[in-house]
Amino acid sequence: GAVVSQHPSWVICKSGTSVKIECRSLDFQATTMFWYRQFPKQSLMLMATSNEGSKATYEQGVEKDKFLINHASLTLSTLTVTSAHPEDSSFYICSARPSGSRASYEQYFGPGTRLTVT
Amino acid sequence: EDQVTQSPEALRLQEGESSSLNCSYTVSGLRGLFWYRQDPGKGPEFLFTLYSAGEEKEKERLKATLTKKESFLHITAPKPEDSATYLCAVQGSGGSYIPTFGRGTSLIVHP
Predict the structure, then answer these.
(1) Residue-level pLDDT at A103
(2) pLDDT tens by residue, A60-75
(3) How far apart are CA A59 and CA A80, in angstroms?
(4) How far apart are the first and last CA of chain A?
(5) Are strands A30-38 and A45-51 parallel, antiparallel or unpaired?
(6) Which of A39, A44, A94, A99 is the most exposed place for a label (fewest CB within 10 A)?
(7) How does pLDDT run across B41-86, given as a tens digit for each residue?
(8) First CA to last CA across chain B, in angstroms?
(9) How far apart are CA B9 and CA B25, in angstroms?
């Protein structure tokens, strides 16, 4: 149980184009999902918290107009990197927190998406 | 502000050489302490949740323990496949529902 998928697992795009990454909780509902970015050999950097049916909360320094997050259902959140530039190349990981009860503090991670902008 | 410090940053062990990873934390009202394993190029894999001091959980060669100030992840007779980065995170009750992560311990187990 508690499986989170991400699609695509890797993507290469040209500078100036937009890329959408999907995050799905496969066997549970998630009111809250998180989006992280991770640079090589560094820890997770939280980008934003996504709550179903409401606007995402972005961390300081993260451009909300560049990283568009939509959490349209209890099992799906999407991250769109708009007008991508080479510096946006990174490993993006989502996580989902099961709705309700004590277990709601746990979060389960997706396998990550490797984005390369050329 | 919740804080998590993991030590050591890196640890090299010989196969079968048991050891412990440390996660020291400060939090206002602990709602949960979490351990994850992350392999290169993959998302973190959930291992354990600990809720209160004195609690212990085990999974194969891993055992997690919790006190009011720190958690240990004990690795007994490790194998090369245990090589990974181990992440610790805490969730406090201070109003934010965002967990705080440590920087991780990179473990390498040599055959």
Answers:
(1) 53
(2) 999 999 999 999 899 9
(3) 16
(4) 37
(5) antiparallel
(6) A39
(7) 999 999 999 999 999 999 999 999 999 999 999 999 999 999 999 9
(8) 41
(9) 15
The answer to whether B99 faces chain A, any CB pair under 8 Å, is yes
Tally helices (H) and strands (E) across chain A. 0, 11
Is the CB of residue A114 less than 8 Å away from at least one CB of chain B? yes
How far apart, in whole angstroms, are the C-alpha atoms of residue A8 and residue B5?
A: 33
Structure confidence by residue, pLDDT tens digits, A30-86: 989 999 999 988 889 999 999 888 889 999 999 999 999 999 899 999 999 999 999
Q: Please judge whether A106 and B32 are an interchain contact, meaning their C-beta atoms are less than 8 angstroms apart.
A: yes
Q: How many CB pairs under 8 A join A and B?
A: 52
Q: Are the CB atoms for A93 and A38 separated by under 8 Å?
A: yes
The answer to whether residues B88 and B102 touch, using CB atoms and an 8 Å cutoff, is: yes
